[in-house]
Every structure is written in structure tokens, then in C-alpha cells.
Amino acid sequence: MPLRHVQPNEALARELLDVARDSELLLEFLRAPNAVPEWFPTTQVEEISRSLGDLPEGTAEGCRAPLEYARVRLPAIRREHIIMEDQAPAPKNEDETPPLIRGMGLDRLFRDLIASVTTALDEYRLQASEHFDDTVGPELAVDAHGDAGVRSAIDKSRAVEEQLHSAAETIGETTVPGSSRADRLRRTVKDAENVNRVARAELGMKTVVLRWFRAAVDAFQKFPAVIRKFGQAIVVAVDVAQPLRQRWNDFWSNLDNFAFNELRECGGVSRTHQR
Known about the structure:
By secondary structure, the protein is mainly alpha-helical. It is built from eleven helices and four strands.
């Protein structure tokens, strides 16, 4: 059964910290000048890495979608873009961008992150007593590259992330320090932010795997109700600092304006390309 939207226990937190460390190392490599060729899906890998890097700040249940997505998408990117040295074609000229080779710096970072993601996901599934089929059939993938609806969905997703980031700041600045209810709410907002990044990463890939994308959208749609539940508990328990109550009320009154349903509209990608 699913875990709860609470702080991860010690065993899961340890694995999530490992994931966060390896994702940050990969991000540092990608941000270096001329680290990877232009044809490498750098933006999508960065989105995945950012979602993984923030998992320790989220909840036990909230780590599931980003981990499951990374567990299947990162190896797929590695297989497609990083080749064995004996498979590398001879360069045509000195200015040609060299290929990405297995065993080199980027590949080692990929392997480390895939390993830590796998270990963390195993720990989640152990605690949830759950098994999952990671296989993907060709009928579950569509080519939505360049689709105007996809580009619009990605833009909306970035707007959602800005709102969620602002919400997390408001929670931290208006609630009583040390409030466990406020911490749970902040972690849940962070979960939503991470799942939003996962969905955006998938939309940015040339081949969109509908099952992964729909799983992210379905997870994302659960957050409004959870956020409202925790937010109401904070008000009842007077965990909002009195001098800042008006700011909290303004934030809370605008909650319905959060673009939670914007990501659902990305399902139009699925409907447009559904087979």
C-alpha cells in the first residue's frame, strides 16, 4: 500500500540523500561549459536531476513517482546517447564533437545515479510491500517532438513550478517555527514540484512514453486535496504566526488559482497522439 505524506523514515531518508548527492554531481557536470554535445537531452536530464535532488525535502510517498520515472528514463538515455568505445565512428574532422563514451566521466555519473535511484526505489517498494513492472511496450510510446501542444504544456508546467516554489516560501515564512503540520505541508508542496518536473522532463523527450507521463499527471492531481487538508490543519492548530496571518489568508484564497489542472491539460498530448 502507498506510504504516507510524511517525512521519510531513517532508512528511506538515507537512500534519498544518496540519490540527491549523485543527482547534484550529475548536474554540476552538465552545467560545465561544453560538457556535452548539443544533441544530448541536457535540459531533460537536468529536470530529472533536480526532481531527484529535492526528494529529501519531500515526503515518503512523494518520492515514488520521481524515482520510478528516473529508474526507467535514465537508463534509456544512457543506452541511446552513450556508446561503447569500439562503436565510436572515426572523426571526420578536428572540429567534430566527440561521442559520449561508456566508462568516461558522464557515464560514471549516470551509473552512480541509476544505482542510487534503484536502491532508493527498492527501499520504497519494500516499505510499501509493492512490486512494479518496469517494461514498456512500443504501443506505449508516441513521438510528440515539436508538437505545439507539447511546447504549450511545458510552458504551463514552468508556471506551475513558480507557483509551487512561492507556496513553499510562504509556508516557511508565515508558520510557527518547528510546526510539524507546516513541515508536512511544505514537504507535500515540494512533492508536487518534483512530480511536475518529472512530467515536464518526459514532455521534453522526443519519444513520450504515455504510461510514465500519465502516472506523473495522476500523481500530480492528488496534491490539491492533500495540500488543502494539511493547510486547514495548520489554521485550526493556530500554527500560522499571527502577525503574518493576512499573508497566509491571501495565499490560501489564491490556492484554487494554482495551475494544478494545467498539467492535466497536457493529457491533450495523449489524446492527440493516442493510438
